[in-house]
Amino acid sequence: MMLKPGDSAPLLQIQDALGRTVDLAELVRQGRYVVLWFYPKANSPGCTAQGKKYAELHEAFRQMGAEVFGVSRDPASAQCDFMDKLALEGGLIPDSSGRLGRAFGVGGFLGLGSLLGLYNRDTILINPQGRVEQVWRNVNPFRDAEVVLDYLKSRIFNLEAPAPAQPATDPKGL
User: Which among 36, 47, 100, 103 is annotated as catalytic?
Assistant: First the structure.
């Protein structure tokens, strides 16, 4: 089932590529946003570009109160190599069983995911209330991180179009 904004997020406990427990429910209890960027294959050109951008923007995401995790069906060893290559500070989650992808409704890459064991390039944002805040499907790997960060900035700072300027008042009251 594909999740949509407003749905309850599956707040699972999972292991990252380094074997650390990632408890999505605990992150939400701490008032954090959680970004899950699903990608097809570690070290492929598009995934490398996407991962580099998340690595570059890692501190900006942290300042917005967000924890960021990349998720693929690659084994932990491939993800550790990918993390080292990108100097990626955010975690990577090996989801070889497909449990996390199924829970978040992430389909197979090019419709062949179950056959090839690859995920679509989808990004899910969970808000501090434990709900799916936003879903981006089939994202552009070169722009995904910036789009998500811009969205977070607009939500957190409630940035909208600037209010129209108030007319200057006549000092004489006229």
Answer: 47
Short-list 138, 105, 147, 151, CA closest to 39 = 138
Nearest to 13 by CA among 96, 93, 126, 120: 93
Rounded percentage of the chain residues whose pLDDT exceeds 70: 85
Tokens of 36: 């899950």
Determine if the pTM surpasses 0.70. yes
47 noted as active-site residue: yes
The candidate with the shortest Cα–Cα distance to 106, out of 121, 127, 90, is 121
Task: Encode pLDDT of 138-154 as tens digits.
Answer: 999 999 999 999 999 99
Buried-state track 38-57, b at ≥16 Cβ within 10 A, e below 16 = bbbbbebebbbebbbbbbeb
Is residue 28 a contact partner of residue 11, using CB atoms and an 8 Å limit? yes
Residues 67, 89: contact at Cβ < 8 Å?
no
